Amino acid sequence: MRNIEFLDTSLRDGEQTPGVNFSINEKIMIAKQLEKWGISAIEAGFPAASPDSFTAVQEIAKILTKTAVTGLARAVKSDIDACYEALKDAKKPQIHVFIATSPVHMKYKLQKTPDEVIAAIKEHVTYARERFDIVEFSPEDATRTEKSFLLKAVQTAVDAGASYINIPDTVGFTTPTEYYETFKFLIENITSDREIIFSPHCHDDLGMATANTLAAIKGGAGRVEGTVNGIGERAGNVALEEVAVALEIRKDYYQANSEIVLNETFATSELVSRFSGISVPKNKAVIGGNAFAHESGIHQDGVLKNPETYEIITPELVGVKTNSLPLGKLSGRHAFVDKLSGLGFDDITNEALQALFAKFKVLADKKHEVTDADIRALVAGTTIENPTGFQFDNLAITSTEDGKQTVTITMRNAGDEVIDTIATGSGAVEAAFNAIDSFFTQSVRLNSYDITAITKGIDAQAEVHVTVENEDTGTIFNANGLDFDVLRASAIAYSNANSLVQRENAGIITKKISEKANPEG
Q: Where is this region: Regulatory domain (predicted)?
């Protein structure tokens, strides 16, 4: 059995999803969970892109002990220097250098000749290797690059010191057979006196990211790259949980293992979903809400007789627990702490625990039975870093004689300054959003509004996801809110989204340098 390494790029490529803006604290929490999940390397960000990205990579580098931390860099010396500075405290630092090699990218984006690209690879991989023991190189848009030139580019990078070679399917263009043959071709023709590990990086534009990634493994890849839940720009990246479970279920075919702790899969997926503001579709493979549901009578009959008839993945394999928590309004702090520990929340500070337990008691008063999902949602809702400045505090609602709703929204800042705004609407949510709009007085358009019940039943907690657009800049922001009351959850989500827009308008959230920009130098 070969061992397949997993590199997660949820914090870098995943954050390129329109509307996704992880705070530094959220990135740290995700990074810790990824380490617990068994990820071998985390692409923590693109340090040269913005001060926030640099700081996030720097902070993640300080806390991870088992998982390698890597930063992305264009073939630009200042990018490589930024990675070095951000990662100098990492236990296992790596760098990922890339430049485009396809004809269309070289001609129109880079405006460089093939010879100039080869020279840039040699110069910048050499420069990176002088600063890092582990250098990864990617020929961007590799699957639309001529085989002979791709081989030349990769050989140049290997000769310059790269030990990981990533072959990205940047626009989701390739097919499993083509990708398999590309890996076989490169592995058979690249020469080196040391081990070179090849990896796929697949986008899902044609819906083949998982199939292509598995084909690359069959073709000899020793590491895979992707994101949790498949988040990423356009149609997203390969979902790492799908690859990990496929390797487990089909060991007979792939003859490969990984270090992924499969029963941490659901918790990892849920955390990334909540912080990204992107819900997992019900029919999503491996971790979707219907992944273990059986509606057909024939299927139900078969599963009751033997689960293996229609269930190749057990819920327990990926950390889905069907039992409910034996916690309620009479449960004490000790029992609550024990349950948190059992769910993997071991590093909550005493101050945060006190606030969390108080919220648990409020929830337990409203619910007959508190489930694992309720507790996870409660923790995530408490630890989501709300934007600084004024935050939602409370609301009150009244009905008018003409059938409209009037909502008073109370906003509070860290200095306990309180401001109330009042607005009406055809419904309570519209009135609440109108009141929040009048507080922030900025050009915001609501693009989507979704409500998800955390658990089943009439007493389920509500999670609200909103997507808004800053009409002054065109930037998309996702935000979410969690509360037992749907209206409060809606107000929290919309307030958080408006706070992000406010921060962008104030220059606190800055435009990021695109890693696809034309390198200068």
A: 391-521
